Amino acid sequence: MDLNTVAAIRQPRERADLALAPGEAILGGGSWLFSEPQNHLTGLVDLTTMGWAPIEVTESGLSIAATCTFTELSRFELSAAATGWAAVPLFRQCCTALLGSFKVWHAATVGGNICLALPAGPMTSLGAALDADAVVWMPDGRDRRVSVLDFVTGVESTVLQPGEVLRSIEIPTRTLASRTGFRKIALSPLGRSGTVVIARLDTDGAVAVTVSGGTDRPVQLRFDALPTAAELASRVHGIDNWYDDAHGAPDWRRAMSAHLAEQLRAELAVTA
How many CA atoms lie within 13 Å of 267's alpha carbon, on the beta-carbon side? Predict the structure, then answer.
């Protein structure tokens, strides 16, 4: 869609260039920004010209740039750097939860998907499930970190303050080494996710089950060891922020989340 109120697009090269003028907004991939009218905007600041490396291996794990595209993320498991990290296949699994063509995958970004904060945002699911931290650039030049689990606070609501920019998400080696399981369900074969459930078995035997898509913000259930079926079902049914829209009623989302969580529990039990 043409944004006919936008008169200019700036191409920042350094951090200071990200200071927004009145009427400006940050542009990542633009897969949502260009999908509907944005009559309040007069300018865009294109993050892709900052030249951030899509994915970097660090001493503590992985740093995924906000401008990393779905295509780049989905292909990481084919790289030599991914060897030995059991959780890496989850990257592509979460990418496939986005309803979009290959053209959307080439444009949609990790940061844009998280900052949009829609319940079905698969990058929010990924970051929350792997205990990733969001690195936020503040307008005064400082950085702050907040877990992706806490970054999204509700439907289209995040902890970002005016002038702040999501720089990257950082996934620790600890969770990259974990075994993971992924389940998604929708009301139609190509429909928006009704619920997404991701289970993680850590090397110390601890278990984390993350529910998103069917909730207004991601919810993580933690256990010191693999829970029993009854323990897991009780915790899932205790979630109180189920989302209600045309893609699923709360009671259906609750039932499906419990069903998928049990499938994942049984799957992880084989190697626990």
Answer: 17
